[in-house]
Amino acid sequence: MHVILFGAPGVGKGTQAQLLQKEFNIPQISTGDMLRQAVAEGTPLGLQAKKLMDKGELVADDIMLGIIEDRITRSDCQKGFILDGFPRTIPQAEGLSALLKKHNMPDFTCIEIAVPDEVIVDRLLKRGRADDNEATIRHRLNVYQSQTAPVKEYYKQLGSFVSINGNKAIEDVYNEIKQILTTQVA
Ligand code: AMP
């Protein structure tokens, strides 16, 4: 099962990915978590990424594609995986398609979790992560609109895009995602 959980920061991709990971026994791949780990370890990537993450800017596409290729070719990904926070730009989506071809992996089902901006701002202020102050949150939402939202069209054209309402209880969102995944071969 190959799934992309898509949507703005704070829509609940991470929460849903963790639930799916347990149920289907395939790994959650969160590029945000991977970058935060690099920051915590103080690696060269972490030092570079931290400045961008603090400002709510995106890390460069070639760096992200390198991280993803390294991760999806590990043995725990043989039965599939859940992408959470990647791809975030058209070049990342195109690069991912090329990687899937290169490694003989099937295409993805892209599931958008849609939540209104004001609900997102509220949720993120409550979450309180280092990059969750109001100015950075609003900037991340702008970056999402300009750079990430166009990726939807990419997956719509591939015929593998579904959008669901994420402005409801975690369990209700989860049941909807599960239903999509069990009725579609992903
Ligand atoms: P997230 O936890 O997914 O909201 O990611 C936190 C931050 O990490 C983002 O605001 C970006 O600065 C960076 N990041 C995570 N994933 C990506 C990606 N696919 N492309 C570029 N930057 C990313």
Characterise the protein shown here.
With 186 residues, this protein is an alpha/beta fold. It has a single domain, classed as 3-Layer(aba) Sandwich (Rossmann fold). It has helices at residues 13-24, 31-41, 44-55, 61-72, 90-102, 117-127, 134-148, 151-158, 170-183; strands at residues 2-6, 28-30, 81-84, 109-114, 161-165. A five-stranded parallel sheet has the order 2-3-1-4-5, sandwiched between helices. Helix 2 (31-41) crosses helix 3, helix 4 runs parallel beside helix 5 (90-102) and helix 6 crosses helix 7. The longest helix has 15 residues, at 134-148. The termini are close together. The relative contact order is 0.20. The mean pLDDT is 95. Bound molecules: adenosine monophosphate. Adenosine monophosphate binds next to helix 2 and helix 3.
How would you describe this structure in keywords?
single chain, about 190 residues, alpha/beta, Rossmann fold, 5-stranded parallel β-sheet, about 10% strand, binds adenosine monophosphate
